Amino acid sequence: EEKPRPKLTAPKIPEGEKVDFDDIQKKRQNKDLMELQALIDSHFEARKKEEEELIALKERIEKRRAERAEQQRIRAEKERERQNRLARRAEDDLKKKKALSSMGANYSSYLAKADQKRGKKQTAREMKKKLPDLAASRDKAKELWDTLYQLETDKYDFSEKLKRQKYDIMTARARVEMLAKL
């Protein structure tokens, strides 16, 4: 069983002209070379981009690793400080308990001595307050009240004016719409 062969025909050569096959082959080779060079250039550009991205990624990873290490160091330092505070507090409590237990009946005298060390603190009632010139304060308060009153009246006047202007605009718009329909 033979398969039918495709009919091959020789390329037609224009009459009267010489065909330079070497020139055609050189042009084809130059074209292929240009395409190959473009592919090589695009490949190297893509590779360069990938390498830059890889370097940037490595830098980000290293930066994040350094940040994490710094955070862990800070966390450990804070934990150490907290533990030291707790230990000092426990030690102070223990000293206080020992002092209280050794005092026993002398505790009230201990409290009296502690009060003497601190000194007498004046309560709010006992403290005498120095008042500035009362007349000047009263004048300042009246001046502030007058200013506030004037501002409030201006605010009210402007809001009423705004309401009136809105009403005028609405009625004018309604008239324009009616005239436009006619």
UniProtKB/TrEMBL annotation:
Residues 65-133 are annotated as: Disordered. This is Troponin T, fast skeletal muscle. PANTHER family: TROPONIN T, TROPONIN T, FAST SKELETAL MUSCLE. It comes from Myotis davidii (David's myotis). Gene3D superfamilies: 1.20.5.350. One of its GO terms (molecular function) is troponin I binding. Pfam families: Troponin (PF00992). Residues 65-95, 123-133 have a biased composition (Basic and acidic residues). Troponin T is the tropomyosin-binding subunit of troponin, the thin filament regulatory complex which confers calcium-sensitivity to striated muscle actomyosin ATPase activity. Keywords: Acetylation, Muscle protein, Phosphoprotein. GO terms for biological process: regulation of muscle contraction; sarcomere organization; skeletal muscle contraction. The keyword Phosphoprotein applies. GO terms for cellular component: troponin complex. Belongs to the troponin T family.
